[in-house]
Amino acid sequence: MKRFYIWLRELTLSQQLLTLIMFVVTIFSMFILIVLIPQINSFTDNEMERVLHSSHDQAAYYMARYPESSYGSVPVDGDVLMEIYDENTGLFRPLNRQAISDQDEEIIKEKILSGAAGDFTITYRDRVGMRINSVYTFTEITEGRWLVSYLPGQYEETFRAGLTVNSVNTTVGVVTFLFVMLMLWVASIIHPINQMKLFINKIKNDEFAYLEIDRHDEIGDLADALMDMNFELQRQNHMKQEMLQNISHDLKTPVATIKSYGESIKDGIYPYGSLEKSVDVIIEHADRLENKVRSLITLNKMGYLLDDCPEGDNLDMNEVIDKVLLSLKVIRPEITFVRVQDEHVMFHGEEDPWRIVVENLVDNALRYARSTIRIELHPYELIIHNDGEPIEEDRLDVLFEPYEKGTDGQFGLGLSIVYRVVTTYGYRVEAENVQDGVQFRIWRVPTKKEQKAKKQKKHD
């Protein structure tokens, strides 16, 4: 079974369809031979007995009332042959169009004289060897006079052939209809799949590709997802190219400055007036290079971040915020920091990733704030607000994607790092414009167990 499954998986949809057709034809043939034909034979035998007895009983009733009925006056079925057998004379007298053969008459006489049951079958073989059954029945209508009814084998063959042809034709018609519908359905799947395959190959070869599949089922959803993926890839590639250009430009300037200042100092020339000031310029540009490289390394590192922390909240976020503000608030001394914090607020995760998150959000706020940055910390929630200009509405949905650079942004990597850390630890993050500026909110919904524990703590 495993080998068959492996073999089936390696077939194309067209090959699978052909295999299914062969399987259906085989099952259909077995159904006709094993089920349909025996059922037809059984139904034919029952039908012959029914027709024979119906006509025989009707004629016997009539003959009992009119014993002297002659040829042609007895109401009988046209397919049933009847004769009157007189024991006194030993002769058969036909009541309709055809007489019983002499051979069968002798068999009937023996049956009547031996007192056998009224129904029996005489079987013959035709010239091609096919079996032919003739069904007989007889009833004594008056003393010494017997009504013999006979349904010839030709009736059985004609009835069986007609029933078989009709049954097989009906079955074949239904199967053919289902088969055609199945082929149309499979074709409706294969064609869009081939379109999507061609579309993906064009994307892989960096060619212009457009996919138009007007369907409202799962295949249509997949086609729409592929188009969205293509648009997103094109957008990200464009943003990456811009980022690389920006990084190249940003790296080129400090490298050129460091190189030129170093060569000047080597030649005994101090471009910034004195050796100390010239070296300070070299250090400043080296710091810029270090920050850029660190951002790229951090983004790559956060891509492999895993939640290996023990279950539950184990990190004091008040301490993390204290450390971040201690190092960053000197960047813009004129900015006022307003802190609204609950005591001993614990978050889930490790300190270093969360410190990078807070640093990036505070650094972002410092670039845009006019006078105030407000930090709110509550259980399961952290908000960093600045009173700067609002963010364009069309950028709010893509703000946390890699290489999405703001107006005064550097590389477009800081917020993507925030998103990766936050989502890894089971939190959510969003940016929104508020009445007096912009705020970044990190939160998660507490579990039922945590909610119950919180209520119990308040109650105590």
The strands making up the biggest β-sheet line up spatially as: 2-1-5-4-3
CATH class of the largest domain: Alpha Beta
Range of helix content: 55-70%
Helical segment count? 10
Q: Measured on Cα atoms, how large is the radius of gyration?
A: 48 Å
Please identify, by name, the CATH architecture of the largest domain.
2-Layer Sandwich
Largest sheet: number of strands, sense, barrel closure: 5 strands, antiparallel
The share of residues in extended strands comes to: 15-25%
The chain-level structural class is: alpha+beta
CATH topology of the largest domain: the name is Beta-Lactamase
Mean pLDDT: 78
N- to C-terminal distance: 63 Å
Quick summary:
By secondary structure, the chain is of the alpha+beta class. The chain is 56% helix and 16% strand.
Describe the protein's architecture and organization.
The strands form three sheets. This protein has a five-stranded antiparallel β-sheet with strand order 2-1-5-4-3, sandwiched between helices. The protein has a five-stranded mixed β-sheet with strand order 7-9-10-12-11. The protein has a two-stranded antiparallel sheet with strand order 6-8. The two termini are 63 Å apart. Helix 2 (13-65) runs antiparallel to helix 4, helix 5 packs antiparallel against helix 6 (275-302) and helix 8 (351-368) packs antiparallel against helix 9 (414-424). 56% of the residues lie in helices and 16% in strands. It contains ten helices and twelve strands. The mean pLDDT is 78. The protein has three domains: 6-161, Beta-Lactamase (2-Layer Sandwich), CATH 3.30.450; 218-302, Helix Hairpins; 315-459, 2-Layer Sandwich (Heat Shock Protein 90), CATH 3.30.565. With 460 residues, the chain is α+β, with helices and mostly antiparallel strands.
